[in-house]
Amino acid sequence: MTGHLDVVLAARAQREGTAQRRTALVHRHIDEHALGVVIFQPAHEPFGVIAMAIGEGPDDCEMAVVAEPRNPPILFDALAPIAQRAVARLEDCEIDRGTVRSARQEQDRCTSALQIIVPNTATVAAIGRLGRRLAYLSTDGDLPAPPELVRFGQYLQFLHDHEAVRGQSLLLSVTGLLRRHYATGQSALEDENLASIDAWCDPPPGVHGLDAAGVVEDVAVGPLLQPDDDNVVYDLVTEANRTRRGRTDEAAVTSARTPLVPILSRHVDDAWQLLWRGVGRLQARPRATHVFQRWTDDRRAFTEQADWVASGGRRRAQDSARRAASMRLRLEASGIRLDAQEALDDPLVMATYEIVYEALRGTVVDADPNNRERPRRNLVKRPLLIVRTRAVCAMPPGKKLHWSTNTKVACTVRVIAAAAGGGSIVTLVVNAGMNHAIPRVGDDVCFSIHNEGFAPRLLLPSSLPWTHQPEVEPLGPGTLDQGSSPWEAASA
C-alpha cells in the first residue's frame, strides 16, 4: 500500500540524503542457496542473449558469452553449461521431498525450491521471453537442442508465470525487493535502476543519495546495455560474422566471441556485485512471521510444476477459459492475502492504514465481557471494549475491524469520542470470535480491516457456459492443449 507515509518517507530521504526503511521486517523469503542470474540482450533481439551469468554468491559467477544470438547452434552451445547447472540444482530440489500431513490427506512435497534472483523487473520480463524461446525447442531433427536447455526454458516459463502471484519468492528482482523495503527520493521508475537505488541505500560518507545515484546511473545491469555499448557490441558481432563466414565450428565461434568477452565481462561483473550487495542488505534483517507460510505455498507450486513436467505435461500455447479464471482468482487472492499479512506482521506497514483510518491502535481502558444485546429477537452476547487511541480516530460508526492478534475476533465501531489530553475514546462491539480470548483491560491492541480469511474455492462448470463456440477446437489432439495444467488442477 502506498500513500501518505510514503510521501513522508520520501521527503525524509531527501532531507537526510539516504533511503528510509518502509518496513521493520523483511517480507520475502531469501534462500541461502538462491541462484543469481544476470542477462544481457542485444537491443535488436529481445528473445536472444548476448551474455548470461549464473551463480550462488558474489564470488561464484559462471558467465556465457554468445558470439551470435540469432544463430541457434551458437546460442544453444553457449547456454548449455548454464542450463546444465540450473537443471542440476532443479533436479536436486525435485528429488528432496518429504511428506506433509493435513487433516484430509498426506502430500508428497519438495522440501526446498530453486529460487532465482535477478537485478530488476526488466530482467524478469527477459526471463519470460527466454523461457518461451527455449521451452518449445525440438531435441531432434536438423537443429536439435540439448534436453537441459528445454528443461531450463520450461522452468523459466513457470517462474515468469508464478512471479505474478503477489508475495511469491521463487523469482525475485533486487530492485523490487529494495523498493518494497526502502523509500528513496526518486520516482518508482528511477528506483528500477539498481545502481541508483543501491546508491540511495548506502551512499558514501558525506555524499547525498541523489548525488551518489547521479554518479552511477549509467551502470548497466541488464537486460539491455547502454546504447553506446550496444552499438559497439553490434559492430563486433557484425565483423565477427563477416570473418566467420557462416562457420559454427568451435574454433570459428571462439574467435568470434573473443573480442566480446572484455566489454561484456565488465558489465556482468558490475551487475553481479550490485545484485548480491542488495541481497545481502536484506538477508541481515529479521523476517516477518508469514514469510515462511508463503514460501510453503511457493514450494507447493514448485512441486506441482515438477510433477506436471515429469508426467509429460507442457505449458499451453494459449490460455483456456478455465485456466484464465483459475489464474485470475489466484492472483486476486494473493494480493488480498499479502496486504493483510504484511500489515499484521509489521507495525510500520500497519501505520499506513492507521493514517487513512483503516486501523486503530491504543489501550483497552474498560471492557464489558458480559454485555448482551438484542440484534433481532433473542438476547445474545456482545462484549464491549473501550479503547483509548493515541492519535485522533475518525472512523465512521459501523466500520468492521479485526483484532490483529487473532483476526477471528471481529468487532464493529459503535461510538467515537474525543479524549481529554488528545486522542480518541473508541467503543467497539465484539460480534464474532467470542469463543476465543478477547482483549482485556490494560492490553495494548491494534484493530484493522485485515483478516487472514482466504477466498473460497472456484467452482467451475464442466463445460463452457456460453452458447457461441467454435465447431472445431483451435488446438486439436496431439497439441499443447491436451490435459490440464497445475493451475486448473488446483481449482478442480
Describe this structure in words.
- The protein is α+β, with helices and mostly antiparallel strands and 492 residues long.
- Helices cover 41% and strands 17% of the residues.
- It has helices spanning 4-16, 72-95, 121-135, 147-162, 174-181, 194-201, 209-216, 227-244, 250-257, 261-283, 291-310, 321-345, 347-355, 486-491, and strands at 20-21, 35-40, 51-57, 60-65, 97-101, 106-110, 116-118, 171-173, 182-183, 359-368, 372-373, 380-381, 384-389, 400-403, 410-418, 424-432, 444-448.
- The strands form 5 sheets. Strands 10-13-16-15-14-17 form a 6-stranded antiparallel barrel. The protein has a 5-stranded mixed beta sheet with strand order 4-3-2-7-8, sandwiched between helices. A two-stranded antiparallel ribbon has the order 1-9.
- It is globular, with a radius of gyration of 27 Å.
- Residues 475-492 have low confidence and may be disordered.
